[in-house]
From TrEMBL:
Coiled coil: none
Organism: Hymenobacter swuensis DY53
PANTHER family tied to this protein: INNER MEMBRANE PROTEIN YEIH-RELATED (PTHR30106), UPF0324 MEMBRANE PROTEIN FN0533 (PTHR30106:SF1)
Protein name: Sulfate exporter family transporter
Homology family: Belongs to the UPF0324 family.
Cell compartments where the protein resides: Cell membrane
Xref: InterPro entries: UPF0324_pro
Stretches that traverse the bilayer: 67-88, 94-117, 124-142, 190-207, 219-240, 246-264, 276-294
Keyword Membrane: yes
Length: 296
């Protein structure tokens, strides 16, 4: 019944996440295998669908404005994560996974970098649980903060793309703020996600790993293709709004699945030190990027 409600117009991404969290803490996730297997795919197809509602010219402009923030924040986060991880005496793999998840795009970055590191399942689980908990907090906290500070749509979209880990929560928070914020946030976040490739390759070199394969985030190419079709092929305007609506429903269901997978057991498995690293990195990135966005 809850899943069906998430498909109705009354369900929003934050509400869907909250319902998923409630389900996880009370009855438990009734379909753990399904959510683990299909959540990422549903998110990826939803992102592609959102491309049918965006204009390529506006996206290029948004991406151009966000590129300097992207480069500085990614390398600054990775460096800070290394320093704080050593101070906390965390393992190198967990430190690097959480740092990559914070710097680039949450679970997608961790999933891409983990095999390159040949990280153990426990290390992957700790890193994923850390960023997913912080994602949930950000999805609820960012829109009220944006309104309290009177951020413009452009400013809020850029802040979301830089300071929130996962694409799902970025899109959910930006959609709650407004249409322009959603366009800016999605474009900048997906441009940021392309850094998975050079970061994963650099990881293989730094950690001296050989014979590893780096997966191309193909859904970003799908998003770009959908956006180009919407911009240059007028015929797509007939089905475009329907595809965008389907994508937003898919995103809402995705966040419900993510919330349903965040049980107390999963949260407790993180441990204090990895969670401390994740929180510290997130707070620094959030506050520093917000200050720059407002004052520069």
């Amino acid at each position: 019944m809850i899943l069906v409600f998430c498909l109705t117009p009354w369900a929003s991404p934050p509400l869907a996440l909250a319902l998923g969290l409630w389900l996880a803490q009370t009855l438990g996730n009734p379909f753990p295998a399904f959510t683990k297997q299909y959540t990422a795919k549903l998110l990826q197809f939803s992102v592609i669908g959102l491309g049918f509602g965006m204009n390529a010219h506006a996206a290029v402009e948004a991406g151009r404005e966000g590129i300097l923030f992207t480069v500085c924040s990614i390398f600054g986060t990775l460096l800070l994560g290394y320093v704080v991880g050593r101070w906390l005496k965390l393992g190198r793999h967990v430190t690097h996974l959480i740092s990559c998840g914070t710097a680039i795009c949450g679970g997608s970055a961790i999933a891409a970098v983990g095999p390159v590191l040949r990280a153990r399942d426990e290390e992957m689980s700790v890193a994923l649980a850390t960023v997913f908990v912080l994602n949930a907090i950000a999805l609820f906290a960012f829109p009220p903060i944006g309104h309290a500070l009177s951020l413009t749509q452009q400013q809020f979209g850029l802040w979301c793309a830089i300071a929130i880990h996962d694409t799902s929560s970025v899109v959910g928070a930006a959609a709650a703020y407004g249409k322009e914020a959603l366009e800016v946030a999605t474009t900048v976040k997906l441009a940021r996600a392309l850094w998975i490739i050079p970061v994963a390759l650099s990881t293989a070199m730094v950690f001296k790993q050989q014979d590893v394969k780096v997966k191309l985030p193909w859904f970003i190419l799908g998003f770009i293709g959908a956006m180009l079709l919407n911009t240059y092929v007028p015929a797509t305007h007939i089905v475009g709004p329907w595809l965008v609506q389907a994508a937003r429903l898919g995103l809402t269901v995705t966040l419900f699945f993510i919330g349903a997978g965040l049980s107390l057991k999963a949260i407790r498995s993180v441990g204090p030190k990895p969670f401390a690293l994740g929180v510290l990195l997130w707070v620094v990135v959030s506050t520093a990027s917000l200050y720059v966005i407002i004052h520069v």
